Amino acid sequence: MTQPPDWNVQQPAPGGPYPTGGFPPPAPPPAPGYGYAGGPSAPVPPGMYFDQVSGLNLPQGVQLASVGRRIGAYFLAIPLAIATLIIGYVVWGLIVWGRGQTPALQVLGMRCWRPETRRVSSFWWMALREIVGRFVEGLIGLITLLASFIIMLTSRERRCLHDLIAGTVVVHDPEKILDQWSSAGP
Fold it and tell me: Helices marked H in the chain — which ranges?
């Protein structure tokens, strides 16, 4: 007497198209440097590397800015604004926005990078980030500021609310490698 087939276990098809008993062969593992979270996708562009922590393609020689560096930039902006009598800080900011920086980011060797375009943020993207993004952060006051801080701590890309609005990430560029990444490319 024969037992009925167990329908919970996949049975190989007799004489199936695969030499492994009816099952397809396993897929090869993805090549290093490709994709997000180990999945296959487009290759990393030349001059860039895949950051495993953030899941972003970043230029060689830069790294995603640490949480401590981001907090330091936030608090550094206060004494810089006071020392330059606020109007100097605003003028300084308008000058360095074209390089994807704020005065505090410039002092700490950081820049705003747009992963979608693979470029340093332009003046207008920085204006969106600093004017509209900061307005939205301060709209409800402490609640949105705290929410922005929590988003930065918990997101893989370490983006605050104003970074999400402008599509930027903040990278640490101590060797000023991104000086060569203009709006026309590297």
Answer: 67-83, 87-96, 103-107, 123-127, 134-139, 142-154, 161-166
